[in-house]
Write a structure and sequence with these properties.
single chain, alpha/beta, DNA polymerase, domain 1, six-stranded parallel β-sheet, HAD-SF_hydro_IA_YjjG/PynA, HAD_2
Length: about 230
């Protein structure tokens, strides 16, 4: 007989909160505000894979928060062969962080899913993002009230997939890994990280990546209803 799930842990960015859409809008705002002469779409197209690379380095403690914020912009401008001084890059990096939580597009089905789950389970967040920014995203997108606890890498002291962040979240939620499940979009950080501490998982496989056939997965949030 399967163990009854009582607690559900969600990743935030790329799982509930539409990071790519909101990020593009934040860049459109700051680039136009400072009259930076690049095509916003061209910039974002280059920025997205660079940002992914830097987050991977940050996740593995190979760059600092400051290096992440500066480097991803510097490299995107370099790829565009656009000359810009370091002072402006630092300013753009700060303003991007300021504007990012002000755009709050959620993935299709997010509110319907949370409304469906809330009466049946205790819901939680585990995110590698920075405390204030992630909290602003939850508040501004009007979903913070669905969650009992919010664990981020700043208060846990480590980032996913480190076991300690999952154990920290379980302790904070006062729940058992045997009756909990993790849902996220990142195979290494969310899925492998959770599996390594004994949590059940569901992979939000938005882009239909090839993965292990035994891992439960969905490519639309509302498809989670068949598991929960």
């Amino acid at each position: 007989m399967e163990t009854k799930i009582l607690d559900i842990f969600f990743d935030l960015d790329h799982t509930l909160w539409d990071f790519e859409k909101n990020s593009a809008l934040a860049f459109e705002t700051v680039l136009e505000k400072h009259k930076i002469g690049v095509n916003v779409q061209d910039f974002v197209t280059r920025y997205v894979p660079i940002n992914t690379k830097y987050w991977k380095l940050y996740q593995n403690d190979e760059v600092t928060q400051e290096q992440l914020r500066y480097g991803r912009l510097k490299d995107a401008f370099t790829e565009l062969e656009f000359e810009i001084d370091d002072a402006m890059i630092h300013l753009l990096a700060e303003e991007y962080i300021h504007y990012l939580p002000q755009f709050n597009h959620l993935y299709d089905g997010t509110i319907e899913l949370l409304e469906y789950l809330k009466p049946k389970y205790r819901l939680h967040i585990i995110t590698n993002g920075f405390h204030q920014i992630q909290n602003n995203k939850l508040v501004n997108s009007n979903i913070v009230h669905y969650f009992e606890t919010i664990t981020n890498s700043e208060n846990a002291g480590v980032k996913k997939p480190h076991p300690q962040i999952f154990n920290y979240a379980l302790d904070l939620a006062k729940c058992s890994k045997e009756t909990s499940i993790m849902i996220g979009d990142n195979l290494e950080a969310d899925i492998e990280g959770a599996l390594n501490v004994g949590l059940d998982v569901i992979f939000f496989n938005e882009h239909n990546l090839e993965t292990h056939p035994n891992i439960k997965q969905v490519n639309h949030l509302l498809a989670l209803k068949k598991y929960l």
